[in-house]
Every structure is written in C-alpha cells, then in structure tokens.
Specification:
With 224 residues, the chain is α+β, with helices and mostly antiparallel strands. The chain is built from 2 helices and 7 strands; from the N terminus they run ααβββββββ. The strands form 2 sheets. Strands 1, 2, 3, 4 and 5 form a 5-stranded antiparallel β-sheet that branches. The chain has a two-stranded antiparallel sheet with strand order 6-7. The termini are far apart. The structure holds calcium ion (2 copies). The site of one calcium ion (CA) has 9 residues, from loops.
Length: 224
C-alpha cells in the first residue's frame, strides 16, 4: 500500500503582525497631535518665561530710575541762594532740561516722557516710561502732614510709571541744614553727584541705572 505524505503547512503572517509593519493613518494623526500639543506647551512656557522676565525687569528698572533722579535732587541746595528765591524754578531756570535746577523745590512739577538725562538727552530703550517729581513742605513734627509755608523740611517724591501703568515711588526728606547747604570756604570744584547707566550687550532690559552722592564732604567755613 502506497502511502503518500506531504507537508501542507504554510507559514503565514498573522494579520495583526502585518499591520505593525507600517504606520496607519490613525497612528500618524495621533502622533502629529501629540507633537503639536508638546510644541504649543513649549511655546507657552517660553512666552510665560519671556513675560515674567519683562515684568521682573520692569520691577527692577522702576526703583533704579527713581533712585537715580532722587540722588540728583538731594545734592542741590535746600533753597535757591539768589536774592528772590521762590518755590519752583527761579527766573531763567526752567526749560526742557534740568541743568539749571539748583535747589530742591526747583524740581517740583518736573515730569518727562520719554525719560531724559540731566542735560536733556533722551534715555534710550525706555519708550513709554514717565518720571515725575513732587516737592512739598511738611511739618517737622509730623512728616506726613503737608504745610503751606516754609517749615525747614521738604518732602520729595519721585514717581516712575512703566508702560503698563505700574508705579514706583521713592520718598525722601530734605532739611534746611544739610551738608550741601553750606557755602565752601573758598571757591571749590568738586563732584557731588554721579549718574550711572550701564549696559552690557544689546538687551535694554539688562541696563542698570543708578545715582550716587560721593561721600567727600563739601569744604565749609571754619567754625561751622
Ligand atoms: Ca527754587
Ligand atoms: Ca533754583
């Protein structure tokens, strides 16, 4: 008896395995969606970081600009040494810059936008910022009380407003007998204020503003 045997087994790839050999449309769409979500999330993070950086810079610049102008004011005389001092700029001292302002109350009402250096030159990179000054006599026994007549004490307020309307205010008191109110014993040239603006690189937000009053005292008449 002849018996024939043959092997009819055929190797087949299961349908599921064959599908894994490529990328289906659904998988491509899902992958694109996931990547898109990740890109959007990354961009939002970058945008938030940039916004936070700008806010931080604005909070740092406001006090610096206020301090810079305040230091400029504090080294002027308490009262103009002319024959007819007035509260506010004396004759010939007003104008578009601050080079002729030589006593504290000359600065009352000063405001500038765009911001200016003392010589009237514009401070670049600060479009939309405003700096304003208010000076008032106050009661020496209660410095929060404004008085209408000479009291021997002036309160100076420098207010800086950024382009978004956020304000920074610096307040100082100035008496009538500070070191800067004594006449030198002889004609003397000295440095009493230095305004500083520093910037490294092209980023305006990285700029540093400051003003300093050197500690060298003004030469005073003997006995004073
Ligand atoms: Ca004055
Ligand atoms: Ca003056």
């Amino acid at each position: 008896m002849f018996r024939r045997e043959c092997d009819l087994r055929v190797s087949r790839t299961p349908r599921a395995d064959r599908r894994r050999g490529g990328i289906s449309l659904v998988e491509a769409v899902l992958s694109t969606l996931i990547v898109s979500v990740m890109v959007v999330a990354a961009l939002q993070s970058l945008g938030s970081a940039a916004t936070a950086d700008r806010i931080h810079a604005a909070r740092r610049i406001g006090p610096a600009l206020a301090s810079q102008l305040m230091s400029e004011i504090l080294v002027t005389a308490y009262e103009d040494d002319g024959d007819s001092p007035v509260f506010g700029p004396e004759n010939g001292e007003g104008g578009s810059h601050r080079t002729k302002l030589d006593d504290v109350d000359d600065y009352d009402g000063w405001s500038s936008s765009p911001l200016q250096n003392k010589d009237g030159s514009a401070i670049s990179g600060l479009s939309g910022w405003t700096r304003a000054v208010s000076v008032q006599w106050v009661d020496p026994n209660n410095v929060s009380t404004v008085v209408a007549a000479e009291s021997g004490l002036k309160r100076i307020i420098v207010t800086v407003t950024d382009p978004q309307g956020r304000q920074t205010a610096a307040t100082c008191l100035r008496g009538a007998s500070s070191a800067y109110d004594y006449e030198p014993s002889s004609s003397t040239t000295y440095v009493n204020w230095v305004g500083v603006t520093l910037q490294i690189g092209p980023d305006d937000n990285a700029r540093i503003y400051s003003g300093v009053n050197p500690l060298n005292g003004i030469p005073t008449p003997e006995g004073q």
